[in-house]
Amino acid sequence: MKKILLGSIALTALIAAAPAGAADMAVAPRYQAPAPVWSWTGFYIGGHFGAGWGTKDWTSITTSPGLDEGLHHVRGGIAGGQIGFNYQAGYWVFGVEADASWANLEGRHTNPGLFLTGNGVTAEETLNSKVDSIATVAGRLGYAVDRVLGYVKVGGAWAHDKYFLSNIAFPETQFATASSTRSGWMGGLGVEYAFAPSWSVKFEYNHLDLGDKRDTFRFVSGGATVDHSITQRLDLFKFGINYRFGGYGPVYAAY
User: Fold this and answer.
1) Distance (Å, rounded) from C-alpha 86 to C-alpha 94?
2) Rounded distance, CA 124 to CA 173, Å?
3) In whole angstroms, what separates CA 39 from the centre of its chain?
């Protein structure tokens, strides 16, 4: 009887201790999905708009060879589109981008040393210019922190220009005209932010050095020609939006 009593006491103590022991056991961790890591890899297409400004520095070639005829500033709006590809390796993003912009960058100045006769009036010559389109093709190198990408770009640049000569009394009357496409180099920097899986916005600054080019002006009346050398540099500020193709948004890191 004594043995039975002792056994019952021991069993009761064991049962009472079991919940406390179970509570002290480590709880198995629940599975957690790995945190997403944003990827910029992929093709994209987009549009942009903004403003441009620059200088046109004129030198006479045929009328007074080597004479500095002064410069004027051009300014106005731009709008266009871009297409490109990115490849991300770690934090670094390598890419290439081509863009084309309609432009309306205009300017003029008076050449005080030369006079033009037209509409019965002889007055100082006015030199007029307009940049009506711009294109660039550039490589991009960026550094990404999740959805934010900072980058620089370097490449080639092209611009199409229209010119005309008038006199100060009739600044809109075209006595001689010229047009040309010129090429040079460009450099820029920008920042891009991915606000949705396929969409991003960017702010970008570009500097274009389009060098010196000889342009031949043909007079509207008589067909005579005169040459000017024009040095051109432009600066562009763009706001753009891009759409990325094919699931190149967040990816998940492997553990």
Assistant:
1) 6
2) 13
3) 20
What domains appear along the chain, each with residue ranges and CATH number? 36-245 (2.40.160.20)
pLDDT for 255? 42
246: pLDDT strictly greater than 80: no
Alpha-carbon distance of 146 to 142, in angstroms, equals 12
Tokens at 193, concatenated: 């932010």
192 class by beta-carbon count within 10 Å (0-12 exposed, 13-18 middle, 19+ buried): buried
For residue 109, which of 127, 125, 122 has the smallest C-alpha distance? 127
Phi/psi at 26 (nearest 5 deg)? -65, 135
Rounded Cα distance between 251 and 71, Å, is: 53
Closest to 177 (Cα-Cα) out of 129, 116, 229, 244: 129
Confidence of residue 169 (pLDDT cuts 50, 70, 90): confident
- Res 81 pLDDT > 90: yes
